[in-house]
Design brief:
With 371 residues, this protein is an alpha+beta fold. It has 6 helices and 23 strands. Helix content is 15%, strand content 30%. The two termini are 28 Å apart.
Length: 371
């Protein structure tokens, strides 16, 4: 479904990468929201939560409804799936099917933040993970039914990273909200985050040092090449296996000497989590937890479901550069958040326009219209 991880260069600067896997391409948008933009979040039975953006931010966003001529798309209809703000805070939405359940009651007079607006709220309001963590202890957040996903209760958990290395997991588990500091800096999907940490205790033997020879009686066994150190890594693309692999690559990959090399290195790390169509498939008779948008028929039709990497994101939290690569492209395109400062309003660029883009696409986003 999704893999996220942080990486540091030789100077200790922080970079972040994530993939998103689904069985179909969705109508994702690249969205820029400048400071001062008025935003709102609504939960049925409560007053709306209205606020103004304090920080510019870039995001990959997903519409929460199908627009029509009588009800065109607005900024509040675009829900942040991945993003970074001008202070270097990132926010990510990852699939978590067991999020839903009985939630704590909130007084009807209180304004409540919809969980689907967590990303927009976090990126527009806060500079660090610590600020976000403090605010979450005061601001009620509730899961809501998502019409675009067939009225399922919001099946996600959320991660945030900042430019000084802070990392946070925000996780509804069967309706109960848990907030975890993330000492590993990686996340995938289920089970719960604390389970993943406990499972990591089973991998204390991992090292990046190859042991290339051993004695068995009088026989001297010798490896013909390098790479034996990774033999203990989980081989599957399950959430559990990817969490361990992400922790390994984040920990042991060589620390790059420059920011440009660090972004390139992070791209190589994320290649280990890139999934082409058909590598694993599920037939309709099997019980699966694939997310799907009813009525959306983009992409090839097959007799089976196959998750693939719809897009990959790299974020340079120091230089505020945001890189994206879609499934239809082998190259990344870059958006420079600092260069967007001073833009007079929100901008939205459809992913469909990005498939042939390479190099810097900041100007393309500047010229885009909103909604």
């Amino acid at each position: 479904m999704c893999t996220s991880l942080s990486y540091r260069d030789a100077a200790g600067k922080v970079y972040f990468g994530r993939t998103l896997e689904l069985t179909q391409d969705l109508p994702y948008q690249v969205m820029f929201i400048p400071s001062g933009t008025l935003l709102t979040s609504e939960v049925s039975g409560h007053p709306s939560l209205d606020y103004a953006a304090k920080h510019d931010f870039l995001a990959v966003a997903m519409p929460d409804r199908i627009p029509s001529s009588s009800a065109p798309m607005g900024v509040s209809d675009l829900k942040t799936v991945e993003g970074m703000n001008a202070e270097g805070l990132t926010f990510s939405v990852l699939s978590y099917p067991t999020a839903g359940g009985e939630q704590a009651s909130v007084e009807a007079t209180l304004a409540v933040l919809a969980a689907s607006d967590l990303g927009t709220w976090a990126l527009s309001q806060f500079a660090t993970v610590e600020e976000l963590k403090v605010a979450l202890n005061k601001q009620p957040v509730m899961l809501e039914m998502l019409a675009l996903l067939g009225n399922v209760e919001s099946p996600f958990h959320y991660v945030a990273h900042d430019a000084v290395g802070g990392a946070l997991v925000i996780e509804f588990d069967r309706g109960q909200l848990n907030i975890y500091d993330n000492p590993v800096g990686v996340m995938t999907n289920g089970p719960s985050f604390d389970w993943h940490l406990t499972n990591l205790d089973n991998y204390t033997f991992l090292t990046n040092v190859d042991k290339t020879s051993a004695n068995f009686g009088t026989y001297r066994a010798v490896q013909p090449d390098s790479g034996i150190a990774t033999a203990g890594l989980p081989a599957s693309n399950t959430s559990v296996g990817r969490f361990v692999r992400a922790a390994y690559y984040s920990e042991y990959t060589e620390k790059a000497s420059t920011p440009d090399l660090a972004v390139q290195t992070l791209a190589h790390i994320m290649n280990n989590f890139d999934r082409p169509r058909g590598v694993t498939i599920d037939f309709p008779s099997e019980s699966t937890a694939h997310l799907a948008v009813p009525g959306l028929t983009e992409g090839p039709r097959t007799a089976y479901a196959t998750e693939f990497t719809c897009w990959t994101n790299l974020s340079d939290l120091e230089r505020k550069q945001f890189f994206l690569r879609t499934y239809q492209s082998i190259n990344y395109t870059r958006f420079d958040l600092a260069s967007l400062a001073g833009i007079d309003g929100p901008r939205v660029l459809a992913f469909a326009q990005m498939n042939t883009l390479t190099g810097d696409s900041t100007d393309r986003l500047k010229e885009a219209k909103c909604c």
